[in-house]
Amino acid sequence: MTAPLAARGITHRYGGFTAVDGVDLSVPAGRVTALVGHNGAGKSTLFDCLCGTVRPTSGRVFLAGRDVTRLPDHARARLGLARTFQQLAVFPGLTVEENVRVGAEQRRGLTAPGLAAGLIGLPQPGRSSARAATRAALRLLDLGASHRLRAADLPTGTLRRVELARVLASSPTVLLLDEPAAGLDQDEAEALGRVLRALAADGMALLLVEHDLDLVQRVADTVHEMAGGRLLGPGGAEEREGGGEVR
Ligand SMILES: Nc1ncnc2c1ncn2[C@@H]1O[C@H](COP(=O)(O)OP(=O)(O)OP(=O)(O)O)[C@@H](O)[C@H]1O
Hints:
Blueprint: E1 5-14, E2 17-27, E3 31-36, H1 43-51, E4 58-63, E5 66-67, H2 73-78, E6 81-83, H3 96-104, H4 117-120, H5 130-140, H6 156-168, E7 174-178, H7 186-201, E8 205-209, H8 213-219, E9 222-227, E10 230-234
Parallel strand pairs: 3-8, 3-9, 6-7, 7-8
Antiparallel strand pairs: 1-2, 1-4, 4-5, 9-10
The structure holds adenosine-5'-triphosphate.
Adenosine-5'-triphosphate binds at residues 14, 17, 19, 37, 39-45.
């Protein structure tokens, strides 16, 4: 089966320095794939190549089998790829609900199978209002009670949920998360883990770059370790029951 997101032979050089070196990676539907490694291993550079914010020096990126290597990040987003940021990306002057609404209004006009739609109660794009998508995402992230609060007044843990709700309201098929547990306490990280597992159970393809190895251990179906720009291969995580192919 074609993976929703795949990278083939990705290499990226900054001048003469090779940050990512010939990486092959598949991010299958219905699974959480994690990327771990020490600082400087090349995780962020690979992540940026997958999102489209960095053009790889060589190699190819495929979304649902389509070569998107030359497409910028916003075009990949329209094809169903969403990301969260290490540095939180929320609009501080907007309320929680308004922030999430921004994501809902970026929903694609396409109907794609395997959306998180079923789980979070999001009707298929094109058939429902952005308001319904906003409400569903707020509910999934347990933000209903704070929907009128201004983002600027909220703590990091809540803002991480706001960012994730905004991204989910756009109904992605592939979700890339860059250190989503940064700044979360243990309870918040556990709640986040449950949401990520639920999204995978609903068919989404998730790629998680994370330093919190407890979270990785709890949620990932497959763990890839990166060092010196290369993938060392899957390891660490047990294959979850009922899982599909690994790479
Ligand atoms: N814009 C850049 N110009 C030059 N070198 C860079 C640039 N960005 C990253 N690098 C180098 O590329 C290598 C990989 O960096 P990258 O940020 O991808 O690693 P990482 O695994 O994400 O690290 P961290 O966990 O600290 O975020 C590092 O040696 C880094 O110094």
